[in-house]
Every structure is written in structure tokens, then in C-alpha cells.
Amino acid sequence: MRGSPLLGLLPLLSWTAACGPAAPGEAPVPGASTPPGQGLLVVDLVDGTSLDEARARTGLDLRWATARSEDEALAVVEVADLPAEVARLEQVAGVEAVEPSVTMEALGLVPTLRYPDDPLYAQQWNLRTVDAPAGWRAGGGVGVTVAVVDTGVSRVPDLGGTVLLEGVSFVPGRGTADDDNGHGTHVAGTIAQTTNNGLGVAGVAPRARILPLKALSGAGFGQSEWIASAIDEAADQGAQVINLSLGGGRSKVIEVAVQKAAERGVLVVAAAGNSGREGVGWPARSPHALGVSATGPDDTLAPYSTWGEGVDLSAPGGDKRKAGGGILQDTVDGGKDGHAFKELQGTSMATPHVAGAAAVLLGAGAGSPAHVRALLDAGAVDLGEPGPDPRYGQGRLDVGASLRRLLLVERPSLAALGAGLAFALASFGGMRRKGLVAATAAAVAGGLFFLPLLPLPPATWLDLLGRPLLSWPHLLGGARLASNPLWLSAALPALLTFVAGPTRAFGWLAAGVSAGVGAHLLHGAVTGSLDPLWLSGAAGTGWLAVNGVLCLLFTVAVAGVDRLDRQRRA
Amino acid sequence: MGEREFTGTLQRADLGTGGYLLLDDQGERWQLDGDVPAELVGRRVRVTGRVGTGFGFVMAGPVLEVRRVRAE
């Protein structure tokens, strides 16, 4: 991905992303259609150049950039084609420097540039509608694999910086997962189009990895066994999200595959259908899949969208009756370039918005598919009838609101829970340094969620400290480890308790980590925000609860050892 | 299920990257899987084929596996 220095700032900006709608990089008006390349050009001329002279040299209707710019001969002008004008003016005598105007905004202590620089982003009303910029600032789905079960995915130019894993084809006679239709590549683009690469368009979760699984032919059709096999493959390869922009009649084989994937901790997102009527198709109708209906630029249900039981959420799918109302992405095309930026519409286009949002939330540390669904539901903008309804489900996707729920509500709550439990248990056990124990527990349970406020250079260790200890493996590329029952257990606190607990120097660390992990495990048991692999339902809840209580007992034990040590020395 | 003949109007579906639909005389909408002559879009046609079990991205009705499409 180009522009990595700026991307590196994204984690630092996540607090700002979470704090409100006025953030950089957001185009101001949903549906605005600035032509590609149009914008403000800054021209720095040789000092002393007059305005008339500057206009004559450049052939542009320049004006001074500010009231004090005449001395420096710094001028600006709106142009229709920024790259062409930059190239032309660089050759003009008397022009010292020329570049598109860059928006620098003070964001607390962290300045940022205009983001993203994809020239067609202005036409992506859909990304602004769902507040995709908030997702970019919160990591953009880093470390998360999204399987796209579709017509295949080809590396078109605007997927140039996106991680495409080695695909698999389940279509007989088709050896590779290259796209021979254009549908799957378009869908993959909405999920993870390379963003801020100065080319084309953006995607919801540009740092997510795409796993192309071809289960639809070039004509756009596929048999149930191809699709079921692709779903199994996605789970086998460790995908955390599966995008199914496809549907049809009921298939037990696909239903079982979806259920198995869900039980293995994979979030399955599926299109509701394009019948324009009531009666959601399969697999979206499956209780184990998240069914998505489609909205247009006016934030109402698109006329083609199927609705009814099985719609869990809605997202922009486009409405081409309105100019610029489709969903724009780069995809394969039979033309001479082999690709084209195409506007498409359908619940197929709505579904990847949700899959991308799920990747963003998982990348930001959401602990389970149930947790992701809860965050998506909590953040959704209620449309139609008040409350959940058959047309919009819980409402229209809002990535920013879901992230705010995670970062500004849940994380501080977890930190407070950890601190409170630690302080109470340390006090109960008679431990010294209770404040340190409580602070440690807060940091372990909720992460140092204030870190994004600080003007520190981007670093993985900052990303880690900003999130709960139990979600560290997500960031380190081991999503399966993050759900491993041994990780979601009292094992680490036990180790610390036995190694560091009896020591005077590090007893507080053992007590704090134990209380923090315990608080998180108990919170996960109650809310479903943690989902241990292989342990479904009550078994998983019981595992988390028992281990959570064990962790808290470790804290009491360390506190007791500390008290005995103090008494002995006294 | 055996082959049958369906009559109705051939339509182009602007859904996803597109597909063909048959709006039959009973008001049912079918997705057509197979070779469909684009020049017949908008005309009444006779479609020979069988009801399919496949899945697709058009999602606008049941799938009809097409053997032949003729203008009526």
C-alpha cells in the first residue's frame, strides 16, 4: 500500500475516529460527485512575480493563496485535472513548485494529511455513508482474513497493494481462482481495495487479507457442493469472515457448511437476494449467517432488495436509477485494459461492506463473531420502523459507531471492571501497592485505550498496548490463537502467579495480570464477546467463567502471600 | 426434473455484473443459466430447459438451466 507513513498514523488516530464525525479524509457530503482529478492546485512562483504575470505564465486564473501570500508569490486555483496541470506547470518557467492542495488539520496533537488520495473516492458515497474512514484509522482490518466465495478474484490494478492469498477453485474445469466474470473482484474491492494509493477507489478494510475461493462459474452460477466446499476451505484456511454474495434455494449441504464454519468461529455474511420482494434466500436465511439487505444513496431500501425474515443488517448496495448511485470498484473487464471501474448494484454489493466492517472490528480486537455481531447491531443506524424490522434488520451499517462502541464504551468498561476487581481482591488479601495492582489489571483487561491520543510514532508495541492482553494474538497474526481455549484460560495468570507471585518485586504484576485476565474472561462469559474454539454454547461460557474465577483466586492468593511476607518481616 | 418449455419475456437483469431473466406468463421470474441470445432481450421467447438447483449472484428468482432460447 502506498503512503505507508500516513497509514502508520492510523492507529494513532483511532481515538479521533471514535470521538466524532468531524474527522479528516471524510468528504463532506454523502453523494457529492466531484469529478476525478478536480481540486485546488497550489503554485509557488518566483518571489516578486505579480498576479497578472503569474496568470499570463500559467494560463490559469490564479489568486493569492492568502492575504499575505503576495510576497512569496504563492497562488492557488481550482482545476479540473490536477495531475495534468501539475505535469504541465512543472515545465513552466518561473514556477518553483506546484502540487495539489493538501489538507492539514489539527487533530488534537496529531496533524494529518488528506486521506485517502484515491481520485475516485469522491464518488464512493457508500463508503462515507458507512463511515469507512473510521475503520481505516482503526487499523483497516489488519491481520484478518476474509474469504470471498464468488466468481474468483483477479489482481486488477487497484488491488495492487492488497494482500491476496493463494486462491482455490471449486468450479470443475477451472484450475485457478482468477475471476472470469468480474463479480468476485468487484466484491473483493469493496472489502479491501488498495486505499490511499493515488489510484481509483478505496475499500472498507484495506489491510484485510482476501482469500479468493472460486465457486461460481464465469456465467455466475455454482452448484451447492462447490459452494459448501469453498465454505469448508475458508474455515480450514483460518478465514475469520466469509463473504457470500450469492444465493438460491435451500440447500442442506450449504446450511451444514455455514453452521460448521460458524461453530469454528467464522462470521458468515450473506446477501439477502435481489427479488425486490419478501422472502430472503439461502444461505442468508440461515440462522448461522448474517443476512444483508441493500440500501441506495438516499438511505432507503433499494428497489431490488429482498427483505423479510433473515435480514440482520442493511448496507449500501447501490441504486443505479440515480446518477452515480451504484457501487464503484475496479474489476476485470473484457476491454483492452483488462479492467475497468464499474458501478454495480445488488445485495451482492451490500454484503462486502458488512464483511469489511467485520474485518475492521476483528482487527481492532473484537473477540468473537458474536461480539462482532453485537457491535454491528449496536452501531447500526435505525432505518424504517423503529427498532429491528424485516427490511433493514438492526439498521444500516455504521462502522464508526460500531468502533466507538468497542473503543469508547467497552474498553473503558473492561478497564474499570479489571481495576475494581483487582483493588477489591488485593484489599481483601491484604496486599500492598493496591493501586499498582489495579492499574495493571485495568491495562490488561481494557488496554491502554488512551494511547491513540498521544503523539507517539506508530509502532506495533503501541498497537498492542492499546488493546486488551487477550486480543494481542489478533494483531500478531494468530487469530486462531486468540480463540484457543488455552489462551482464553487461567494458564498465563497461573504461570505468573507461581513464578512472580511470591516475589517482592513482581507480586503486583502477577496479581494485576490475574485480575485483568479474570475480569476479561468473566466479561466474555457474560456477554459472549469471547468465543473459545471447539467449545460451543454452555461449554464455552462455563470454560470462561471457571477460568475467570480461577484468575481472581490467583489474585487473592498473591495478595495473601504478600501479606504473610510483610507479617513475617515485621 | 425433466425438461420443459417456458414462455415469457426475456429481460436483462442489472444486478451484480448482470444476467438474463425470464418473466414467464405465470408472473414467475427465472434466472437463466446457459447461452442466451442478447438480441432477444425485451422480446417474447420460448425457453427450453429444466429447473436447476444452482446458486448465483443475480438472486432474482429460481434458476432455469437453459438448453435453447427461441423468439416466439
What is the secondary structure topology, with strand pairs?
The complex is a heterodimer of chains A (570) and B (72).
Chain A: H1 4-19, E1 39-45, H2 51-58, E2 63-64, E3 74-79, H3 82-89, E4 95-100, E5 105-107, E6 110-112, H4 125-129, H5 132-137, E7 145-150, E8 163-164, E9 168-169, H6 183-192, E10 209-214, E11 221-222, H7 224-236, E12 241-244, H8 252-263, E13 267-271, E14 289-295, E15 313-316, E16 327-332, E17 339-344, H9 347-363, H10 369-379, H11 399-429, H12 434-446, H13 460-465, H14 472-475, H15 479-482, H16 491-499, H17 507-527, H18 538-569
Parallel strand pairs in A: 7-10, 7-12, 8-10, 9-10, 12-13, 13-14, 14-15
Antiparallel strand pairs in A: 1-3, 1-4, 2-3, 5-6, 16-17
Chain B: E1 4-13, E2 19-24, E3 29-33, E4 44-51, E5 55-56, E6 63-71
Describe the overall structure.
The complex is a heterodimer of chains A (570) and B (72). Chain A has 570 residues and is α/β, with parallel strands linked by helices. Chain A folds into three domains: 36-102, Peptidase S8 propeptide/proteinase inhibitor I9 (Alpha-Beta Plaits); 119-397, 3-Layer(aba) Sandwich (Rossmann fold), CATH 3.40.50; 404-569, no CATH class. Helix content of chain A is 40%, strand content 14%. Chain A contains 18 helices and 17 strands. In chain A, strands 7, 8, 9, 10, 12, 13, 14 and 15 form an eight-stranded parallel beta sheet that branches. A four-stranded antiparallel beta sheet of chain A has the order 2-3-1-4. In chain A, a hairpin with a 2-residue loop joins strand 5 and strand 6 (110-112). The longest helix of chain A is centred in the last third of the chain and has 32 residues, at 538-569. Chain A is globular and about 90 Å long. Chain A starts with a helix and ends with a helix. Chain B has a five-stranded mixed beta barrel. Chain B has one domain. Helix content of chain B is 0%, strand content 56%. Chain B has strands at 4-13, 19-24, 29-33, 44-51, 55-56, 63-71. With 72 residues, chain B is an all-beta fold. The radius of gyration of chain B is 11 Å and the shape is globular. Classes of the chains: A alpha/beta (570), B mainly beta (72).
